[in-house]
Amino acid sequence: MASVLEGCEVAAHVCGSPEQLYRAVNDDALLLVITEEGLAQCDARLLLARIRAQPAWSNIPVIVLAASARAGHGERLKRLAQLGNVTVISRPIAREAMAMAVGSALHSRQLQFKLRDQLTELGRYSVELERRVDERSAALAREVDERKRIEAALLESRRLESLGRLTGGIAHDFNNMLQVVSGGVQLLRALTAAAPDPRLQRTLDSIERASGHGAKLTQQLLAYGRRQALSASAVDLNERMQDMAVLLRHTVGREIRLTIEVPDGLWPVRADATQLEMAVLNLVLNARDAMPDGGQITLSLRNCTLPEAGNRDTASLRGDYVCIALSDQGCGMDKATLGQAFEPFFTTKAMGKGTGLGLSQVQGFATQSGGHAFIQSDPNGTTVSILLPRCIGRDGATAATAPAPQLDDLAAGSIRLHGLTVLCVEDDPLVAEVAAGIFDVLGMKLIAAANADEALEVDLDGVDAVLSDVMMPGSMDGIGLAAALRRARPDLPVVLASGYISSPERLQSLDVGFVQKPYSGAHISAALLREIARMGQRSRPR
Known about the structure:
Oligomer: single chain
Strand content: 15-25%
């Protein structure tokens, strides 16, 4: 048999005992050749257990060399069939026939080995497939989370934009009411100047203070709604922070340490300097209130080029910015508070301790300036950051905003404005009435128009200056009217007045003056004089 197997190029392993046979039955064995006599020496249960212990792909061929047929031959064959893949050959047998039987068994076994290799390869593919499915599932989960985050951010942006329009509209109407109140106070002061009554003056002072608080409130609302007119210019933050240091340290008090970190080479930014100072002051006040027992406040400034790796708060910005970050050591904000912190009138302070407009002003100012504001908070403290765009080259506002008036009363302005004719364009009749009173005190002649269409019908040759509201009904607003007047008469001084502008960026392309409502008579006279001087206009008798 060994020679037959060698002729088939198969190495033969001869087992001299049943134990050697049991050990030889394994996955690597090609086939098992056993005589009926040798089989009789084996424990049928042990041999059957070894054969049945094969893996699923394996069915080792067994060739049994049986003795010549004799009594009980059928029963013996039935017992041999339990071994599985059995071929029984009766002796004697020709060498060639034996070689054919061995070759057939080997072929069967080789097919089993191929199946084994394919199953192994399939197993590897299955593992790789599972790995890729897990990776793709994780990627899909991340994409779904990112999509949900973007959708939530979009919904939040739309909600805040709607809230901004609402607050801006309220501030516009409120500003007109404040204009009537503050303008009325100015007129009463002018009318009673010859015979002042102390009691009346105290009442007027109280009304004026209340009007001033209301004006500040509307300014914060407009800042949140991004509807205020900004006087953007190049701001040196190093110099600005030095100027503010004394005020900020005085604001926080003795129990709180304030550190201001301004590195060398800090870029200038393009922003409204006044609104910038208000934003920083609001942040310092909030940080102070978050630490009633004292602590450390750090105001740090740095240059940054966005986007920055790992900072999701700045992922939407590109380019050079300056980051103004204020950190405190308070108790921080929870997730719910953090989500509402920028909303107007939201506050965690006690009743009467805050309006809830400080952070909303910060966000509105940053966004309208082309930057961004965001908050990072944990139980160890809070950091509020403002990003403002770097200013490169010459920069400044094209809409001239009237500086703080140096005139102490209306009479000082009336000396130089007396006799001039002003075209006043105002759709609110109460505000128009107050403005008419102011111009009367200034000694100016008044031409009134309720909207831009009426204003354009006026003969401009008889007009020395124009004061116009911005938000008006009709075919165009005040900004459109200013552009039309500039085309019709380039030398005509124009001053726009408003507390609410739907698109403040449109002012940047105009060469006009601007005053914020509610305005005083001194503000109006200063703005008109400034524009008249700037346009080269001089008063002439009528």
